[in-house]
Specification:
Blueprint lengths: L10 H12 L1 H38 L5 E9 L2 H6 L4 E7 L1 E7 L7 E8 L11 E5 L9 E5 H7 L6 E6 L2 E12 L19 E7 H7 L5 E9 L5 H12 L9 E2 L4 H42 L1 H9 L4 H38 L14 H28 L2 H5 L11 H7 L5 H12 L1 H39 L4 E9 L1 H8 L4 E16 L2 E10 L8 E3 L3 E3 L6 E4 H7 L6 E6 L6 E10 L7 E4 H8 L5 E8 L4 H9 L4 E6 H55 L4 H38 L12 H27 L3 H5 L4
Parallel strand pairs: 4-9, 6-8, 14-20, 17-19
Antiparallel strand pairs: 1-10, 1-11, 2-10, 3-4, 3-7, 5-8, 6-9, 7-8, 12-21, 12-22, 13-14, 13-18, 13-21, 15-16, 17-20, 18-19
Helix pairs in contact: 1-9, 2-7, 2-9, 2-10, 2-19, 7-10, 7-14, 7-19, 7-20, 9-10, 13-20, 14-19, 14-20, 14-21, 19-20, 19-21, 20-21
């Protein structure tokens, strides 16, 4: 029986350190693979935690409202009726209006949203954070606060002047302060889904000055509510809607969850939350697989040592724990690497999010619990990955372990049986027979390299989806140059006026009606967009490039809106009009289209006019514009009172590229870097393990006359054949993993098409092939230094 050590390091721990040192290159490669998964997990969790904490604190300190409602006009006495609704804790009435801005450094008109603030005080709800300057002076009606993002985009400072068309009159607004608001963390202008700081700004103005400009003295057209704890949000909204519909032109109240800024922010956080689960699982799954392969082969190589340990009296649990510590040592090293890189990536991601989300302060924090969770996930992955090898080591009987493994059954390879063996060199036949004699080992190697290739596909495919989405949206669907929106629905004569403007080559009208769609207990606010079957400038695209036709009757819903309402083709939904007569009518769902952005509802223009009981009313128009006269056109539109907004398609596309696409490219670059690390780790470990297992065989061949080049060809040729088979397998795996990832990343805001272009597969293949070549060169150097005498002294 062995004697227990009285002091110092135990024999097994010394063996552990020697083993780790002997395979230090492989151990470090595995540690980096585990670290990649931990880094992504830690960075996403910490970023999510930082955003969530900042959001909750900001909402609480600046009293973000629970319910929002807009209307045409109501006297201030109605505020008392609203406050009397059961469950309402606080009411803030406001005047809100969108105006056209004439910004000196911008050719096209910008949109400004004016929001009233109490004179001489601060808003009771949706308060502003004053970043710079002061509040407007009640004695100076043209003083305003400007949203910080808009001011910074144009270089405005306190004292700058911006000109606006307010209720048909041009006024010079003096910026006296830069502000932020919890209501506009994600500031978007109407009809868009991405913030454009250059073309949309929010301004806060004294209540009396703004109300006077829009003939709303003693009245309001917007109200926000704070609810009592435990009150029914749905009941308050229903009562508020009934109150505001009685002659006040209520457009339908919405809860905080559907307030545009909060809704977009929640969608982004949901996407980040799903990514924080799915992506690290893939990376750590590959790491666990790699640990299993390495430990399995390590146990195979160390069979005599396991036998000797058992013969000396070491128990199964001690030997099992020895190999578990092997996994844990590598995993701990990976955890240190992963947490360090994760903190850096999380900090960088938090800075990236400040391009979209505007907080008074957004501090990155890495909580100890996130560190513990990330490290624990990595350690569990390593232990689970090595569990099979540990079990096999513990179960080996001493007598069995002292014997070498039974040799694989000899047989000629399949190509030789097919009659092409005479065309093969002897080293090539050795390679093919070795692959065939160890089908399990070959399959594991193919799977490992295939998974590394699959990760490269997963890391790059989303840019394919974004590129295709942009091409479809901006070239196939949107074929106009400019979209003009009117402040109020106008008659058909307004379209003729647009056609006569300089530079307008063609104009196509559209009608948009705000509605609330109900089906069973589900409801959602949306806008029905009237479309004509022969539309040319703005078309409905179903999928990648199929042009959808609006049926003569019934609704055409986007796939996400149909999913939210849980409706299918043939179902009838209750359409509650939030404009005009405020009627409710049941309309059949005539079809569902698979579009990419937002939640949309479409209807034939004539049918929509009949539903509204109106004539040829238009909400705006799509324009084809002569680029040589665009500057004159924009100047004219800036001075047109009825125009509420101008959207230039090229500017929207550039904004999408500069913000969302740029941010995605930077994040995917990190994924690609980690995928490349894992690809190298898998291939390098596979090559090193093959060298360790076959060192005696290769030394024997070298002694009996094979050249150094021939034995290198035998070892590395096997690696190249495995890689060649693994590449298409990995591409297929990547397709499956990408499909699963796409389904998890789908939100109400975005639905990217699932597309993997040939270039992505080519990149994955070239990366895996490149790592194979680099690994082969490293192993070739070790093969050249192989000590033939020492290797051949090893007892079979």
């Amino acid at each position: 029986m062995r004697a227990a050590p009285r002091w110092g390091m135990s024999a097994l721990n010394r063996k552990l350190l020697r083993d780790l040192w002997q395979v230090r290159g492989q151990a470090l490669a595995i540690a980096f693979v585990i670290g990649a998964g931990i880094a992504i997990f830690a960075s996403m969790l910490s970023t999510l935690d930082s955003l969530d904490l900042t959001l909750r604190t900001y909402y609480e300190r600046y009293r973000f409202a629970d319910v929002f409602a807009s209307l045409e006009r109501a006297p201030m006495s109605v505020a008392a009726d609203i406050a009397a609704i059961p469950g309402v804790a606080r009411v803030e009435t406001r005047v809100v209006a969108d105006v056209t801005l004439d910004v000196p450094d911008l050719e096209e008109p910008a949109i400004g949203r004016l929001i009233s603030i109490p004179e001489g005080g601060r808003p009771a709800l949706c308060d502003v954070f004053l970043r710079e300057g002061r509040l407007p002076d009640r004695a100076r009606p043209d003083e305003v606060l400007a949203s910080e993002s808009f001011a910074r985009a144009h270089g405005f400072q306190p004292g700058s002047v911006v000109r606006a068309v307010i209720n048909g009159r041009r006024r010079a607004l003096v910026i006296v302060g830069l502000a932020l608001s919890p209501e506009y963390i994600y500031p978007i202008r109407p009809g868009e889904i991405l913030p454009d700081d250059r073309r949309f700004g929010v301004f806060w103005m004294q209540r009396r000055a703004l109300a006077s400009a829009f003939n709303l003295d003693g009245a309001f057209n917007d109200v926000v509510l704070q609810l009592m704890r435990g009150s029914s949000e749905a009941d308050v909204i229903a009562r508020l809607d009934r109150l505001l519909e009685r002659g006040y032109g209520g457009r339908g109240a919405i809860p905080r969850a559907l307030q545009p800024s909060n809704w977009y922010l929640a969608n982004e956080l949901d996407q980040l939350r799903n990514s924080a689960i799915y992506v690290p699982v893939i990376f750590l799954g590959v790491a666990a697989f790699l640990v299993n392969v390495v430990l399995s082969r390590l146990v195979s190589v160390q069979r005599p040592q396991v036998a000797a340990l058992k013969a000396l009296g070491y128990a199964n649990r001690e030997i099992g724990w020895h190999f578990v510590k092997n996994s844990l040592a590598i995993a701990i090293c990976g955890a240190v690497i992963g947490v360090a890189f994760g903190a850096w990536i999380g900090w960088a991601m938090t800075r990236l999010y400040t391009q979209f989300f505007h907080f008074p302060i957004l501090l990155y924090r890495l909580q100890p619990m996130v560190v513990v969770q990330s490290a624990a996930v990595g350690l569990v992955a390593a232990v689970l990955g090595g569990a099979g090898a540990v079990w096999r080591a513990a179960r080996l009987a001493p007598a069995e372990a002292m014997r070498p493994e039974s040799p694989a059954r000899y047989s000629i390879s399949l190509p030789e049986r097919l009659g092409i063996g005479r065309f093969l060199t002897q080293p090539t036949r050795i390679i093919l027979r070795a692959l065939q004699r160890h089908p399990g080992r070959t399959a594991l190697s193919i799977t490992g390299i295939g998974l590394a290739t699959a990760l490269m596909v997963v890391g790059a495919f989303m840019m394919d989806s974004v590129d295709v989405m942009m091409e479809t949206s901006f070239n196939v669907a949107q074929r106009y140059e400019v979209m003009v929106t009117f402040a109020q629905p106008a008659s058909g004569g307004a379209l003729d006026d647009l056609r006569r403007l300089p530079g307008v080559m063609a104009a196509e009208p559209f009608r948009a009606v705000p509605v609330r769609l109900r089906f069973g207990h589900r409801s959602r606010e949306a806008a029905i967009l009237g479309a004509t079957p022969d539309a040319r400038l703005n078309r409905i695209v179903d999928g990648l490039s199929r042009i959808a036709r609006v049926p003569p009757g019934g609704l055409l819903l986007s796939s996400m809106l149909a999913r939210v309402l849980d409706v299918r083709r043939g179902d009838e939904v209750a359409v509650e009009l939030l404009e005009g007569g405020r009627r409710t009518q049941r309309i059949e769902v005539a079809g569902v289209v698979d579009d990419f952005m937002g939640m949309n509802a479409y209807m034939d223009t004539r049918a929509l006019h009949e539903l509204m009981r109106e004539g040829a009313t238009v909400s705006g128009a799509y324009l084809r514009v002569d680029p040589l006269q665009s500057r004159v056109l924009y100047s004219t539109l800036k001075a047109t009172p009825r125009v509420a907004g101008v959207l230039v398609k090229d500017a929207a596309r550039q904004n999408l590229t500069d913000t969302f696409v740029s941010m995605m490219r930077q994040m995917l670059a990190v994924y690609m870097l980690f995928a490349g690390v894992i690809a190298f780790g898998v291939v390098y470990n596979n090559a090193r393990i093959s060298l360790a297992e076959r060192s005696r065989e290769l030394a024997t061949l070298r002694v009996i006359g094979f050249s150094r080049a021939e034995i290198s060809y035998i070892l590395l040729g096997e690696l190249f054949i495995i890689t060649l088979i693994a590449l298409p397998v990995g591409c297929a795996m990547g397709y499956g993993l990408a499909a699963g990832m796409m389904s998890l990343l789908e939100t109400e805001m975005w639905r990217l098409p699932f597309v993997i272009l040939p270039g992505t597969y080519a990149l994955a293949i070239m990366t895996s092939a490149g790592t194979t070549i680099v690994s082969a060169l490293i192993v070739r150097r070790r093969l050249d230094r192989l000590d033939l005498v020492a290797v051949l002294k090893i007892r079979e």
